[in-house]
Design a protein that fits this description.
About 80% of the residues lie in helices and about 0% in strands. It is mostly helical and about 300 residues long.
């Protein structure tokens, strides 16, 4: 085997010289891996903000918009619930059919669903709809200035998440850096067997050490390639589901009314003709668990 496959008598590569190359190679691989992990960590933080901001927006809608206009509040809640799914579809460049079903299911109004599906940036369409409702209620003086600012600030946070996630996806690690690291890694692994054999190792040990070193370095290089696009690794399906459940919980799991609100609500209900049906319905919902309430809505 040594005579046919490991005839390195004419190749003289000192192992010490190859060690200098391995230093630079290790530095490049470490730097690239750190960059990939940093991109992965930033992408995870941004998706945590998606869940946080959708929950905050839903809380504000329930607190400020639902008391003055229930239909608009529920319509906005449905839009916010699909925000994470639309963002997931945009970042992974999935087909349009993948989000049609969930958009049609969550937006029963055909006009709303057609508007969202027709947009190039579908998550941005949700924010546009939210700001449209804020402006409409503001003109009717149904929202105070502080309430408008709070809603608009949260809408801006959602818009910022769209921009930040798009930046990570559209600006990968420079290809020149990647290609230079790959070329240096190939050169190092090509020169490693002659250097190991020249140092006195037999053919079997030379082969084993070359295979182990190549597996370790090429595996590290492959991991850095994988983390370069973190949205292929992050479980965005589960995070999108958590965001939708957080929105549903904001509408279904509301805190008990305050003492002053109890009297006001009771006086208002006494003037309605369907008080008994509403009370029976709320009594049935109050006896359900949080999971059942989320499923119901």
């Amino acid at each position: 085997v040594e005579d046919h496959f490991f005839n390195f008598s004419k190749v003289k590569i000192p192992l010490s010289a190859l060690g200098n190359i391995s230093t630079f190679l290790a530095f490049l691989l470490t730097l690239r891996s750190n960059q990939g992990l940093a991109r992965l960590d930033e992408a995870r933080r941004l998706w945590s903000k998606v869940i946080l901001n959708t929950r905050e927006m839903s809380n504000l809608i329930v607190s400020f918009i639902y008391p003055v206009d229930k239909q608009l509040a529920l319509m906005l809640g449905r839009h916010v619930a699909i925000f994470a799914w639309l963002l997931k579809s945009q970042l992974r460049s999935t087909k349009r059919d993948d989000v049609v079903d969930i958009v049609r299911a969550m937006l029963p109004n055909k006009q709303d669903a057609d508007y969202v599906l027709s947009q190039r940036q579908k998550p941005a369409a949700v924010i546009t709809r939210i700001r449209q409702v804020i402006a409409h209620l503001g003109k009717q003086h149904k929202l105070t200035t502080a309430e408008e600012i709070a809603l608009d600030h949260t809408a801006h946070a959602l818009s910022e998440v769209i921009t930040s996630t798009g930046r990570i996806r559209a600006s990968p690690i420079p290809t020149l850096y990647t290609s230079h690291t790959s070329r240096l890694l190939t050169f190092y692994l090509f020169c490693l067997p002659p250097a190991l054999h020249l140092s006195g190792l037999d053919a079997i040990m030379t082969t084993l050490l070359t295979m182990v070193t190549g597996f370790a370095m090429m595996g590290l290089d492959e991991l850095s390639h994988l983390f370069e696009q973190p949205y292929r690794v992050i479980p965005m399906y589960q995070m999108s589901k958590r965001s939708m459940l957080a929105v549903a919980d904001c509408f279904t799991c509301q805190p008990p009314a305050l003492s002053g609100q109890d009297e006001e609500i009771s006086n208002h209900r006494s003037s309605n003709n369907d008080d008994e049906s509403n009370n029976r319905k709320k009594h049935r919902l109050a006896n359900r668990t949080q999971r059942e309430l989320t499923t119901y809505w």
